[in-house]
Every structure is written in C-alpha cells, then in structure tokens.
Amino acid sequence: MRILLTNDDGIYAPGLRALREELMTLGDVTVVAPAAEQSAAGHSVTLLVPLLIQEVFDDQKRFLGWAVEGRPADCVKLALLELLPEPPDLIVSGLNAGSNAGINVLYSGTVAAAIEGSFFRLTSIACSLGWSKGKPLDFRTGAAHSRKVIEQILKTKPTAGTLFNVNIPSLENGPVKGIRVLPQNVAPYVENFIRRVDPRGRTYFWLGNDFGCPEPHPDTDEIALRESYITVTPLQFDLTNHAALAGLQKHEWTL
Q: What is the CATH number of domain 2-189+216-250?
C-alpha cells in the first residue's frame, strides 16, 4: 500500500515522525508536509508566491519526502499533481499536536489536508492527539492508537474519496477506554483575545489559548474525548444546506 503522509505542524514535528514509523508497518510512506508550522491555516492555498520544495531525510539517512514552503492543502495538491510518480492508496494527515474536534475542523490545517485528498477521490484520514496544558504529548502511544484505528477503517473498505477525522483523547487523563463513531460537535466555543500594548504604545490583540466548549452537544466527538474515548467521524465537504435549498427553490425569484 502506498501512503502519503502530511500534517500542519511541519515536516520536523514529532507527531509526524511517530505516525510515519507506525504507518511504515502498513506500506510505503512518502511525506510531503509544510516546511514550518501551519496550525489553523484552514484550507488556504498559495497563489501569489512560488512553492519552494526541498528533499528531507530521516535520522537513518533514508529519504523521507519533501518539505514545502506552503500550506497543508498545497502539500497534498503538489504531491498528487507533481511529486508522486503514482497516486497513493491512502492519505493520512497528522499526528496533530492537539485535538481537532467540533467546529475546530473548520480551522484545522490537519483536516484541510485530508479534505484536499478527498477532493482527489482518495481515502483520507486526519489524526490528532488531545493535549493537556503543561504536560508533554505522548506521540508514540498516540501514533500507535492512530495506526490501529486506520487499519480498522480500511477493513470497512470505504468508497473512494471517503474522509475521516480521528481524534485520540489526551493520554494524560488516563487509559483510552475504546473507540466511538460519533458526529462532529457543533456547539459554540468560548474564546478570548488578550489585549496588550507594544513598545511603541500601539494596542494589539492576541487570540488566547484558553478556549473551550462549555456545553457540547451529547453523543458527539467533544463529549467522547472528555470521557477518554477515541473518536472517528466521517466528514464531508458539501456545505450546502439541502433543507433550506428545497424551500428556496420553490420561491419565485425576480430581478
């Protein structure tokens, strides 16, 4: 099996390296990932500057893949259209440092890379690891859990282009209790900006890191992650509100 691995934390991120080692037990892995961190880049792509690339090798001097001076979606697009000699059988994005559950999937570069792979009708899986403040992330264990989930997803023989979002709960909160297939939570998050003044007396704002979802909907990914379950959520990129569409189509529109 040919696997394309990417992420949004950058090609040198420990989460990507740990997941690569696990995926190499499943097939041939080629990495095409951002040269630097692109967290919360969403599904942006680069239009006005060239995409510089550079070959990267692992600690054993083996060819790892390409670092791209661009966004996660750029990496997948460039890999499929230019860098890989043939299409992969699977695209995996991760292992992200921090969960990508609920409405965070709309901001996530990790999920965006998987969505880009789904555009090309390839099975694509985003993998993220929950994080507790002030504690180191156990990427090795998180990657092992991710690989086991990926194997089970593949056993279901998903149709071409199916998109999955996998979240591993924060391992510092105790052992993982199991795997649950649940919808994405869409309850709003509480966020805050930090107001400061720079040395020249100018006011600026910095989005704080203390955000959360105080009232998540029941039986969703957010709830299960808090209860130490791995979550698997099939996603789609069709944003059409089909219920509203039907009503609007019955309306008599005039100029």
A: 3.40.1210.10
